[in-house]
Specification:
327 residues, alpha/beta, 5-stranded mixed beta sheet, 8 helices, 12% strand, elongated
C-alpha cells in the first residue's frame, strides 16, 4: 500500500511534465507559453507560485511515506534478525563435516539465487544476480551443465531477460507468511526433486548491519562428489572416523546428510537475505527522506522568493500610481 501511494504521488508530481501523446504535449506547451506572454504579470506569478505549492505538497506526502516505510522495515528487521542469527548454528556443523568448497570442479552445477520479492531496498538483488551470472560463466563449458534456481521476484525479473532457457525452477512470495524452517525445508525438498546436480551453489546476502551486507556463496555437494573428494584427499572432513549405527550404509547416510545440509543452508540463506533486505530498505528510505527534506527546503526558498517578488512588484506599482495621482 505504501509503494502504491509512493507511485501515485510520483505521478502527481510529474503530471504537469508528462503526456502520453508527444504532439498534444508540444501543443499544450506552446499554448501555455502564449497564455503566459499574453497574461498580466501578476497572473504569471500567481500561477508559478501555485505550481511550487503543489510540488511542495507532493514532496511532503512522499516524505511521509518514506518515513513510514523506514519504520515498517525497522520493525520487520527486529523480528527477523534473531532468527537469522540462530540459523547460523544449523549449517556450521555440516561445514566442518562435509566441507564448503566453492572451487570444486563438477559437471552439473545448480546456482540457487536468493533475492527479494519487493524493491526499494538498494542494490542487494542486483548484487546477487551479478554474482550468479559470474558463477554461471565460470562453470560453463562443453562438458558442463549449469542451471539456475531462482528464489524471489526481483532476481527472476533480471535473469529471465537473457537466461530464460537456463532457469529450471522459480519460486516467489517466500515472505508472504512468516518464515520458518518447515516452510523452507519444503522448498528445499522441491528443489532437490526437480534438479539434477553435482554441486548446489546458494548465493545470498549475509547480514552484517543495517548499512552492511556481504554477498556470500555456500556450496552443497552431492553424496557422490563428497565420496570422491574424500577419497581423493580433498578439503572434506574425514568421514571414515565416524561410526555408523543401524542398518544404513555410508551412501544412505551421506544422502540424508546432504539433503539436511541443503535445507539448513537454504534456511540460513533466506533468513540472512531477508535481514539484508530490510536493512537496505531502512537505509534507502532514510536517504529518500533526507533527499525529500532537502528538496522541500529548496522549494520553500523558491516559493518565498517568488511570493516576495510578487509582493514587492505590487507595492511598487501602488506607490507609483499614488505618486502619479499626487503629481
Amino acid at each position: 500500500m505504501a509503494m502504491a501511494a509512493l507511485r501515485r504521488e510520483g505521478r502527481r508530481y510529474l503530471s504537469p511534465l508528462t503526456s502520453p501523446n508527444p504532439i498534444s504535449a508540444a501543443a499544450a506547451l506552446r499554448s501555455t507559453l502564449i497564455a503566459e506572454e499574453q497574461a498580466p504579470c501578476g497572473g504569471v506569478r500567481s500561477i508559478s507560485t501555485q505550481i511550487v505549492r503543489n510540488r511542495m505538497k507532493s514532496v511532503k506526502n512522499i516524505q511521509k511515506i518514506t518515513k513510514a516505510m523506514k519504520m515498517v522495515a525497522a520493525s520487520k528487521l527486529r523480528a527477523i534478525q534473531n532468527k537469522a542469527e540462530n540459523s547460523r548454528g544449523l549449517w556450521q556443523p555440516f561445514t566442518a563435516l562435509l566441507g564448503d568448497v566453492p572451487s570444486v570442479d563438477v559437471k552439473k552445477n545448480v546456482i540457487v539465487t536468493v533475492s527479494s520479492d519487493k524493491g526499494l531496498c538498494g542494490g542487494i538483488n542486483s548484487t546477487s544476480v551479478r554474482i550468479s551470472k559470474g558463477f554461471y560463466k565460470l562453470n560453463s563449458g562443453p562438458e558442463k551443465h549449469t542451471k539456475y534456481v531462482v528464489l524471489g521476484e526481483k532476481a527472476k525479473a533480471q535473469l529471465i531477460r537473457d537466461s530464460k532457457k537456463h532457469i529450471d525452477l522459480t519460486m516467489t512470495e517466500l515472505q508472504k507468511n512468516p518464515l520458518n524452517y518447515t516452510q523452507v525445508s519444503v522448498l528445499a525438498d522441491d528443489i532437490l526433486k526437480n534438479v539434477e546436480y553435482d554441486a548446489l551453489r546458494v548465493i545470498f546476502n549475509k547480514f552484517q548491519s543495517v548499512v552492511s551486507f556481504i554477498p556470500t556463496v555456500s556450496t552443497v555437494l552431492s553424496p557422490e562428489i563428497v565420496e570422491r573428494e574424500a577419497e581423493a584427499g580433498g578439503k572434506i572432513g574425514d568421514l571414515d572416523s565416524y561410526e555408523i549405527e543401524g542398518g544404513e550404509t555410508k551412501s544412505e547416510v551421506l544422502q540424508n546428510l546432504t539433503e539436511f545440509q541443503f535445507s539448513c543452508v537454504l534456511f540460513n540463506a533466506v533468513m540472512e537475505n531477508a535481514c539484508s533486505e530490510q536493512g537496505a530498505r531502512m537505509s534507502a528510505m532514510d536517504s529518500s527522506s533526507r533527499n525529500a527534506g532537502e528538496m522541500l527546503d529548496r522549494l520553500t526558498l523558491t516559493y518565498n522568493r517568488t511570493r516576495q517578488a510578487s509582493i514587492t512588484t505590487e507595492l511598487t506599482e501602488i506607490i507609483s500610481g499614488a505618486s502619479a495621482l499626487e503629481g
